[in-house]
Amino acid sequence: MFYKPEDGHGLPHNPFKAIVTPRPIGWISTRDSDGRDNLAPYSFFNAIADTPPQVMFSSLASKPDRAEGKDSVSNIRDSGVFCVNIVEYALRDAMNASSASLPAGEDEFAVAGLEKAECQTIDCARVAAAPAALECRMTQIIPLKGDQNILVLGEVTGIYLRDNCLVDGIFDITTYNPLSRLGYRDYTAVTELFSLNRPGQS
Hints:
Blueprint: H1 16-19, E1 23-24, E2 26-31, E3 37-42, E4 45-50, E5 53-59, H2 71-79, E6 81-86, H3 92-97, H4 108-112, E7 116-118, E8 125-127, E9 132-143, E10 150-161, E11 166-167, E12 170-171, E13 179-181, E14 187-189
Antiparallel strand pairs: 1-13, 2-3, 2-6, 4-5, 5-10, 6-9, 7-8, 9-10, 11-12, 13-14
């Protein structure tokens, strides 16, 4: 089949997110101007550069108690910082619990039963149990086409790696099985990998 998004797909569910898969999950932690912590998962997330290291995530909805975007975006506008916590398979239920729509200022760390740790380069909490975390300073917030579609860009200023994920000097993702978002209500976890050399590499 072929369809134009503007005309609709005619299917029971929108296939777009199922096509662009798997998508890494950015579990974004922020802190508001009153010192209250927030945590929310975003599946429109990725690394976009490595020198200096930079990441992005997109917020695609609004909340009735916010003028624009979700709590994460509002907090980042105020503080200029955020932390990306990497989600492992073992934390899938806590990640899902933190996706609940809660009133502004309510702490998703507490709702999800997660211990906090303080970031070192920014004023923000991170998920203490996460296999890795990227401390970020916001560089741009860009409105995208569509209602309440907002792109957040950040430069990584500090990187936390859980010690047991380092194997012979390599950050080994098979030690924690990163969780990824698929389409609909589906997720997957990376459990195995393979390597390929580029043409000309040995």
